[in-house]
Structure formats: C-alpha cells, structure tokens
Amino acid sequence: MPSPETSDLLAGLTPPQRDAVTHVDGPLLILAGAGSGKTRVITRRVAYLLSQGVRAHNILAITFTNKAAGEMRHRVEQLVPGNKVFVSTFHSLGARLLRQYGERLNIDRNFTIYDVDDRNRLVKAALGTAGIDDVKFTPDRLAGAISKAKNMLLTPKLYEATANDFFTQTVAKVYHLYEKKLRAANGMDFDDLLYLPALFLKLNEELRRDLDHRFKYVLIDEYQDTNQAQYEIARRLSVNEPNLCVVGDPDQSIYKWRGSDIKNILDFERDFPATKVITLEQNYRSTQSILHAASVLIDHNKQRKKKALVTANPQGEPVRVLTFDNGLEEAEGVVVRIKEAVQAKKFRYRDHAIFLRINALSRTLESAFVKHGVPFQIVKGLAFFDRKENKDILAYLRLLVNPADTVSFLRVVNEPPRGVGKVSLDRLVSYAADLDITLLAAAGQVHKIADIRGKAATGVRDFHRLIAELRTQPDLPPHEMIRLVLDKSNYRKQLQESTDEEDADRLANIEELITASKQFSDEDSSRTLSDFLEQIALASDVDSWDEESDRVSVMTFHAAKGLEFPVVYLMAVEQGLLPHDRSLGKDEDIEEERRLCFVGMTRAMKELYLCHSRLREFRGQALYQVASMFLEELPREVSHDDLAARKNLPRAALDEWRGKVNATAASTGYGTQPRTLPPLKSGGSVGGDYEAGQVVQHAEYGIGQVTDVSGFGALRKLKVRFATGGEKTFVADMVKLTVVQRKA
DNA sequence: CTAAACACTGTTTTT
DNA sequence: CAGTGTTTAG
User: Fold this and answer.
1) Helical H runs in A220-304?
2) d(CA A705, CA A697)
3) What is the pLDDT of residue A9?
4) Residue A221 catalytic?
5) Residue nearest to nucleotide B12 (CA to C1')
6) pLDDT surpassing 70 at residue A621
7) Which pTM was predicted?
8) Residue nearest to nucleotide B13 (CA to C1')
9) Which end of chain A has the lower number of beta carbons within 10 A, N or C?
10) Is A689 among the catalytic positions?
11) How would you label A283-307 residue by residue, b for 16+ Cβ within 10 Å and e otherwise?
C-alpha cells in the first residue's frame, strides 16, 4: 500500500527508472548508460525498500568509493530520515567482516591494513628469505602477480598447482612465504579484504547463511568493475535471499588491469536466473554534441553490445579539439581559457575539471595555475598521508594497535635515529625468526642477543620500552595518542632542533594530521585509533575531493568516474598516453583505453575540450607526440583549433616525419610512440648554433654560460649556467638567447 | 652508525 | 627527471 512518501519517491521518474526503483524481490540488473540518473535511481530504490517495510539493517549497498558511500547514506537519510543503511565499499565491507567475525575465523581483529608500499616491502623480505636475490623479477612485479592470484581466489597451493613456467613458479614460492609473513605480522593487504571474506563465504556455510540472511537486499554500484573475489562475495550473499541488484555500464569498465572482469556484468542474467533487466539509455547530463561525440567514439569498440545514448538536452557548443605546440603551452592554454570563462562570468572555477591519463602530467598544470593565479585542487587523496613524517607517525600508531606489525616496526625502530643500524636489525630479525616471535618481543629480550651490543642494544631497548609505555594507554583518542607518540619518541624534539627548514614544515604536517584525527573522533566519539587507521588505509583519491570550494579540479580519468562537471578538458590526448603505451599491443587493452576516454568525455555537461600537443617534455626529454587515434575517431562536427603558435618549428620536416610514423603505424595496426627521434634535415641550425663555453643572454635569467649542448634538430638542448647561480636546460629551438661572446 | 654523495633505473591507471 | 639503492667518508 503506497504511502504518500512512496509517491514522492517516484516523482519525476521515467517509466524505466520507476520500474527499477519499485523492483523489490529477485535479481535485478540495471544497465545504466552514462549520465542516465543512476545515482538517483539507486538512492530512491533504497528509500523505496525502506518505505515498503524492509528494515535498514537488512540492506547492504556497495559503492566504489567511500565518498560515494557517504553521499548515498546522506541522501537516503534525507529521503527516509532516521534510517541507517549500511553503505560501504567492498574493501570496507571486507575489513568490517574480518573484524566482526575475526574470532570465528581465527583472525586477530587488530590486524593492520597494508598498502601497496607495505606489501612490496614484505614481498622483498620474502625474496630475501627465499634466497631469491636475482634481480630478474622485481618485488613489484611479483607482488602484482600475487595480487592477481588473490583476486582470482587462488590460494598459494592452488596457484602453485597451475604454475608452469619459471616466472609463475617463482611467484608460487614467494606467494607462500609472503602469506606466511603477512599472517605472522597480522597484516592484511588490500586483496585480503576481498579474498578472505570471499573464501570464508565459500567454505563456511554457517557464516555464509548468517550473512546472506542479514543482508537480505544487496545493491552494488559500478558492477562492471567488480573482480572475481567481489563477485564471489556478492554471489554468496544472495543464495537464500537472491535480492541482488547490480548497476553498471559495460562501456565504463576501466579497471581490467586491477582484475575486474567485465563478464561479471555480461553474464549476470545467466548467473542469476529470472533476472529482471532494466536499461536506462536516456542521458540527462550532456549536450547532444558531447553525447554524440562520445557515442561515435565508443562505437569503435568491437567487443561491445551496441547501445543507443539519447538525450533531450540542447545541441550545445561543438566539442573542440585543441592542438598545442608543446605541453607548457597546453597547460597554460587550458588554464587561461578557464580564467577567461570565469572572468566573462560564464562559469565558476568549480565548474571546470581537467582529466589526465597519468598523474605525472599534473606538474606542468600546477605551475600554470600558480602562474595565472587560478585556484585549483589536484585530487590525489593520499598525498598528505604519504608524506614521510606522517607515515612515520602512522607506523607508530599501527604498531601500538598491532604489536606484530613487522613492517611498521622496521619503519620506526630507528626513526628518530636511535643508533640501530642495518646489521643490528638483521640480527634482530633473524633472532625473532628463530624463536618465532614478533620483532617487538625480540626487542624486549635484546639483552639476550649476543651480537647486538652497545649503542644499538640501548636503542632497541629504549624503543621497546617506549612502545610498551605507549601501549598502557590503549583507549586514548587518536589525536592525543599522536601527541604522546610525538613527545615520547623524541620525534618532535628532533624536528624542532633541526636546522633544516623543511623540518618545520614536517612538524606542521604532523600538526595537520593531529587536526585530521581530532576531526575524525569528534564526528563520532566511539571511533577508535584503529578506525582512524582503517579510514586512512582505505581512503580513495576522490575521497579527498572538495566539492564545495570554488576551484578547478584536476584528476585522473580513473578518479573522474561517477562525477560530472559543466566544462571538461581532457589533456594530452596523444598516442602513447591515451591510449597509453602499455596498452598498444592488444586490441582488448586499447578498447579499455577507449572506454577511459569515453568515461572522461561523458563527465561533461556543457562544454568539452580534448587537448593534445605536438611536443612534450617527458622525464627530461622532449618527444614529438602524435595525436591520439581516438581523436580521428570522433565525428566530423567536432571542431579543430590548431593553436600551435610556434612559427619557427621546421614544419615541413615535422610533417614528413609524422608521415613516416603514420606509415609504420598503419603497418603494425596501431601507432606506436617513438622512443627516439630521427635527426631533422635542418639539423641544429634552426635554433642557432650553440656550443659549450659561449656566453649568452636570456631575457629572464640574464647572462650565462653554455655548459653543455646535446641532441639534434628540434631535440637539441642546451645547459646554461647563469651568473645568478642557477643552471637551466633549454630546447635550442625554443629558447631565445643572444650570443654575447663566442667563447669564454 | 649516519649522512652525504653517487650511480642507477624505470616509468599508468588504484582499493 | 626524480626516486631509490649503494657506496663512501667521517
């Protein structure tokens, strides 16, 4: 019986949206095209379930980021006040299950969540133990293979059974040892948070049934990006109560590299019989121009179910491709355009977003923003917690919560310096290994270790005492604990006494960490230190995004998923970057890159710009860049503006060279990015003949002396040491220098 | 044992 | 170019 509330919940919905919202029991697949009002449908559906008498604690909603989870919780709360629906990410859910059912599963609930960095250290340690010091396989690569194995629910034993070459056999060995070390340290890597719950749900029928019953209604957003472990969790929670609703769009699957399997969504109907399928095709976000360009692009994917994307929105401005001469001009060009749009009162800064394929590209942008006084935020969440000083403090905290935490122990045992060097540590580690005790416990009996004497022994003993003392106050709120650590460890003292200016900044950063932790516990006084650490460990990049402030947002294509902005700029849409070099081998991978481009484009509501430049500095080298193949796949209506201002580029030679590249590109199927450039016919004469020893004048930096000349043609570079003290490197073709004296 | 100088190397996307 | 690991001097 629909209450008045119910009709509110259905207000303003299209028939298919309404169908999705009012579906209660049985599996439901919502294929939601970009901008089709998906979030709205999901929240309304949760609210609708509540209005139908479903109890809040029987609903589980899974989102892709914590931020999205928070928003959904908030919106549901607004629609149906007083209901606390459990909304979380898969990883947070996993952590919660492991802590909650830890006892039953023989897991210590105080486990530490290890990030990629911690994981790699442990893999490295495992390599050492295994006596594999070959540099053939980097810890990174091995860790990646282990991660993949866990995503596919392969235990070390299962993995070993399938290992059939030298690499996989090495991985198998390391995987065994790594797991052993990880369990001994009472640590969980990111994959464990999915892998272990998935395994337990599979093997422990009693627990599975309990949870299935508890989470009667399960809803999963961004289902196209779930991996096998996540699938297993969803599947096992929906056996007795098969009310699983998944929402996704195969065209927006962009995490294959992380183990996500697009088959999960494509085969959903087969896996869950009697699934109701609802397709949302109407787009409410973008102009016709934008949507059309995006559809034409994505239509180039062969592995794809054709799908119409329609909108009743106006045609809008044409999508524009902007060609710049080089990366610097591209960054400035974009920033200046944004500034002009704001000055013309057309948009606010916060209406703009810039998407990048790789984080490294944000540097040039940053300087352009600063130079032009345009407010911006680079959305990269962990940057703050990644600072050394904060990681150190967090390692102390982790060790307090989990005394078995090897990685954290090793990180801070000599931080600040206590005279404990590598040799002493190696001895401590092997002592602990021999007795099968934790490093902290070993530190407690350092007097028994004959090989550690003098300053090292005192240092280890002091450290052990410090941790023991701090551990007597387990219930201190996070911020007070940090202060205590800071004082008792002499970390603060060390920074204060330092003459290094940066150390003052470090102290300020720690103060900021204290503020963050205080805010965290002020929001909810029941939150513990362990909760604080977990929140940091599981934070995603977009979680740090500040929607309120009036700033331009800069983020990766991946981080942009699920967001929308009135004006969007895609930067460096170039062969080798988008599609990325590493995808160029396989059609499958290129299709994922195309989806990435599609995701970026469909974030735009009113205006969309795709930028690329001809020359780009990359790890200190200038490279000619070829426009992305995706740009050629756009429809004719897209307008092209060549803003390459550089008149002195040897255009004819450049065109000839590009022609060659395109010829090779055609023969290999797809273009590849040149690693080195052939010398141009015009040699180095374009930018003038420079040689080492010349004294030159630069408009900005003044008088200097050429110290080095290298490269040819457009790549010819100069190093100039200026009278003011600095040394700069210039591209000879670009820089305006006056030769003052042939040779000094 | 520490710190500083050096050589080397490797390069996407992230929970 | 930067970030990491290694060597060297104190």
Assistant:
1) 228-236, 263-266, 268-271, 288-298
2) 8
3) 83
4) yes
5) A358
6) yes
7) 0.84
8) A558
9) N
10) no
11) bebbbbbbbbbbbebbbbbeeeeee
